[in-house]
Amino acid sequence: MTAALRLRSALERIAAELPDDADFAPADLVAVTLNRAPLDAYRSRTERVLEQAKAELDPSKQGSAAAAKATAEAAFAEHLKRMQGPALRYEEFRKATSRWEAKRGAILGNDTQAVSVVGLRRQITDLDELPERLRQLAASRRAKADEIHRAILGLAGVYRGLRNTRSSLTSSS
Fold first, then answer.
1. CB of 118 within 8 A of CB of 111?
2. So what's the pLDDT on residue 153?
3. pTM attached to this predicted model
């Protein structure tokens, strides 16, 4: 219960106990004065603290929290800008490397493309292997010719035998 409510209830009790012929009112018994000095001191302190807080939030005042924040943000932006420079250069390097590798791949080509480095190397390798391949084919051709010659000689022997047999049969008849 607040002091004002206690005072009111006390006045109501006194008013109930007063006789009807009393020549004064219960309100005349109590005079309430309000001491505003503590309230004014509190308001003054609160206004000073509020002004200090507003000064801290003003970025134009040197040394304020808002000015320190703005300085820190500017420093952060500068650091971020300096850090992004190498990252951007690295990204450009990667793009240039990618373009270079694409051109290199187009120049080198593959072994199925006749007008590419790899295709020309394959053709040179094939040409370098050509004399050996020709020797192998010549040896294979000689072996086949010998085989055919042996088969012909074998058949010639068979035909000679058949002719001799026929000649002997015709001469004996």
1. yes
2. 93
3. 0.34
